[in-house]
């Protein structure tokens, strides 16, 4: 005789079984859904590719799902929305920030219980994700088409840059796509899923810029800068980008160049919180070799200062990516002979916020009626975009209130931080500590 509890348990089991079968059928018929067990953990890859693993570990790709700044901002932007299009956008983040989870069915949206994310999917943009990419079906919002294997027992093909590779664990196949900017670009171009607004345009900026040269000797792909960088070699457009000779595994033959996997951009805070201090230093090195400053004081008697910023190192605009959040700005100080400040602009207040009139290079989104919005979910238009394009300059005319005294010192700094403190201060809960400020360039000139 079955007691009630047993009966209930068994029925539940049967019911779950039917549901699972139903899900399985659905999964099989939907092209984007794979099983989580098909993906191999980066730890397994590290068994042979240990150096590449250490470079990737604690990179922003590894941390894309765990990044506390992303998580806090994403939850904050989602709160209180009622418009269907805005909600759709605010839920869409996981497609790029947790891609292995997304293609295996969980999480499908931001408000899913992220604590239930499978361990492997919490590891962000990872080895087996990128190296299972077979093609690209759309050049924005992550249009990658994957062909993963069947887990460790049957790892299948790993696509990569070599055409003569004969690994023992997995099969290997040359993929031209992996040598081109497109494999990066489909995630690094973000469009609002409902309104079509171009939210991030790193790939498009590169595609329309000077580094996408028709002359193959002059062309520099994303990988040509970002996968040549290593400590002391920032590998930007204004520095050397020497090859990185070495072996792809702990036991393979040497090759002239092994692409590095640090994936360093401007983020000099988040990797350090996860033990990746080396990467935060590399982000500073990258930012220090991105732009130059030129200060023309010849019109100072007319109370004018002409400051020119040139993008000499980035293959896209400065800043790029989340160009509405990143802050690149001019801090200007004029001191007279006695060290007394006679003029100041772009100096943070004691809440770490910038004054309204600071010169900031960034994108400002609007609500479709001309009003600025900080929530990308509400972005229907681009109101302004004064970011500095690759190999181009912008000259800012600064109006001084008085003519500075003779022998004054003009100090101009180009500064970078990941996000306005004003936004961080709006996020409820535990305060987010101020993000580090990096000096990209500095000019000091006596007048
Ligand atoms: C964001 C996508 C991405 C991630 C994540 C990634 N790779 Fe790569 N990997 C690439 C690309 C692209 C290349 C080839 C670059 C080129 O040819 O321009 C490459 C090259 C390689 C190569 C060939 C040797 C070399 O470095 O040149 C190996 C081996 C490799 N990756 C292993 C790994 C392992 C192991 C991991 C995880 C620890 C990993 N990759 C994570 C994109 C990625
Ligand atoms: C048992 C050792 C071993 C493991 C584990 C391993 N690989 Fe490899 N892999 C190799 C060897 C050996 C090569 C060939 C290196 C060469 O040709 O220089 C290679 C080459 C590659 C290449 C280059 C292929 C090409 O044609 O360009 C990629 C990409 C790659 N591995 C990705 C991965 C990924 C992703 C993982 C984890 C899912 C992984 N490997 C796990 C041994 C291994
Ligand atoms: C000529 C070298 C070069 C090329 C090519 C290049 N980058 Fe960059 N990248 C830089 C430099 C320098 C920085 C730091 C300055 C900055 O943040 O813009 C940077 C920063 C970044 C950042 C962080 C931006 C921020 O401020 O948050 C991302 C993301 C990025 N690059 C992605 C890409 C992608 C994707 C491509 C290809 C479509 C690419 N890069 C091509 C040099 C390059
Ligand atoms: C699956 C989508 C995806 C692919 C493919 C991808 N990226 Fe990324 N990448 C991201 C996301 C998401 C982040 C941001 C994570 C964060 O800040 O929380 C990021 C961050 C970065 C950063 C660090 C930015 C910073 O602020 O420091 C760089 C550099 C970068 N990617 C370069 C590349 C390059 C080069 C490639 C191609 C080899 C590439 N990415 C391919 C999604 C992707
Ligand atoms: C199509 C791919 C894609 C989607 C979808 C996406 N992101 Fe990102 N996200 C990126 C890339 C690429 C970067 C890195 C750009 C950079 O460094 O400036 C990034 C970086 C960020 C950062 C900066 C993190 C830091 O530590 O500074 C935040 C915040 C962020 N994303 C929030 C979101 C939110 C919120 C959503 C959903 C509404 C979202 N993203 C959806 C690709 C994506």
Provide a short characterization of the protein structure.
This protein has helices spanning 4-29, 42-46, 50-56, 68-78, 84-90, 94-97, 99-103, 127-130, 182-185, 202-207, 222-226, 270-273, 277-288, 421-426, and strands spanning 133-138, 143-146, 157-160, 171-174, 189-191, 198-201, 291-296, 304-311, 327-335, 341-345, 360-361, 363-366, 372-373, 381-385, 393-399, 409-417, 438-446.
Gross morphology is globular
Q: How many strand segments?
A: 17
Alpha plus pi helix count: 14
**What count of structural domains?**
2
Gap between N and C termini: 98 Å
Helix content: 10-25%
Biggest sheet statistics:
5 strands, antiparallel
Percentage beta strand? 15-25%
What is the mean pLDDT?
93
From the alpha carbons, calculate the radius of gyration and give it in angstroms. 25 Å
Ligand inventory reads: heme C
Low-confidence sequence ranges = 14-31
Q: Which class do the helix and strand fractions yield?
A: alpha+beta
If you had to describe this structure to a student in words, what would you say it looks like?
The strands form six sheets. Strands 9, 10, 11, 16 and 17 form a five-stranded antiparallel sheet that branches. Strands 7-8-15 form a three-stranded antiparallel sheet, with no helix packed on it. Strands 13-12-14 form a three-stranded antiparallel sheet, with no helix packed on it. Strand 9 (327-335) and strand 10 form a beta hairpin. Mean pLDDT is 93; it is low at 14-31. The radius of gyration is 25 Å and the shape is globular. It folds into two domains: 29-224, no CATH class; 290-446, no CATH class. The chain is an alpha+beta fold and 447 residues long. The termini are far apart. It is 24% helix and 20% strand. It has helices at residues 4-29, 42-46, 50-56, 68-78, 84-90, 94-97, 99-103, 127-130, 182-185, 202-207, 222-226, 270-273, 277-288, 421-426, and strands spanning 133-138, 143-146, 157-160, 171-174, 189-191, 198-201, 291-296, 304-311, 327-335, 341-345, 360-361, 363-366, 372-373, 381-385, 393-399, 409-417, 438-446. Residues 67, 69-70, 73-74, 77, 89-90, 92-93, 95-97, 141-142, 187-188, 190, 265, 267, 270, 321-322, 326, 418 line the site of one heme C.
């Amino acid at each position: 005789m079955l007691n009630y509890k047993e009966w209930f348990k068994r029925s539940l089991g049967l019911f779950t079984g039917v549901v699972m079968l139903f899900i399985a059928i659905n999964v099989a018929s939907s092209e984007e859904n794979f099983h989580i067990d098909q993906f191999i953990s980066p730890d397994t890859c590290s068994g042979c590719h240990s150096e590449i693993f250490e470079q990737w570990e604690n990179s922003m790709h590894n941390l894309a799902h765990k990044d506390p700044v992303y998580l806090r901002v994403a939850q904050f932007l989602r709160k209180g929305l009622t418009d269907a299009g805005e909600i759709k956008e605010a839920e869409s983040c996981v497609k790029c920030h947790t891609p292995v989870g997304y293609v295996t069915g969980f999480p499908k949206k931001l408000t899913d219980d992220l604590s239930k994310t499978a361990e492997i999917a919490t590891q962000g943009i990872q080895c087996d994700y990128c190296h299972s990419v077979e093609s690209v079906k759309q050049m924005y919002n992550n249009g990658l088409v994957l062909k993963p294997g069947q887990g460790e027992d049957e790892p299948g093909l790993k696509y990569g840059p070599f055409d003569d590779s004969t690994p023992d664990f997995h099969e290997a196949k040359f993929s031209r796509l992996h040598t081109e900017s497109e494999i990066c670009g489909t995630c690094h171009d973000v469009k609002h899923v409902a309104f079509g607004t171009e939210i991030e345009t790193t790939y498009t900026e590169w595609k329309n810029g000077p580094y996408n040269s028709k002359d193959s000797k002059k062309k520099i792909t994303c990988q040509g800068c970002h996968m040549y960088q290593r400590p002391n070699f920032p590998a930007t457009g204004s520095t050397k980008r020497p090859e990185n000779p070495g072996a792809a595994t702990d036991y393979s033959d040497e090759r002239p160049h092994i692409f590095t996997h640090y994936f360093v951009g401007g983020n000099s805070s988040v990797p350090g919180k996860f033990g990746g201090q080396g990467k935060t230093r590399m982000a500073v090195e990258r930012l220090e070799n991105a732009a130059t400053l030129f200060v023309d004081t010849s019109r100072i008697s007319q109370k004018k200062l002409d400051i020119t910023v040139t993008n000499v190192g980035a293959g896209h605009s400065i800043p790029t990516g989340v160009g509405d959040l990143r802050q690149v700005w001019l801090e200007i100080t004029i001191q007279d002979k006695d060290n007394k400040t006679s003029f100041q602009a772009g100096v943070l207040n004691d809440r770490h916020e910038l004054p309204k009139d600071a010169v900031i290079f960034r994108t400002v989104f609007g609500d479709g009626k001309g009003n600025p919005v900080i929530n990308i979910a509400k972005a229907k238009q681009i109101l302004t975009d004064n970011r500095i394009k690759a190999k181009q300059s912008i000259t800012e005319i600064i109006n001084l209130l008085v003519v500075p005294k003779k022998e004054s010192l003009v100090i101009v700094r180009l500064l970078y931080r990941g996000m306005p403190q004003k936004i961080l201060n709006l996020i409820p809960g535990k305060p987010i500590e101020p993000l580090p400020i990096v000096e990209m360039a500095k000019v000091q000139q006596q007048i």
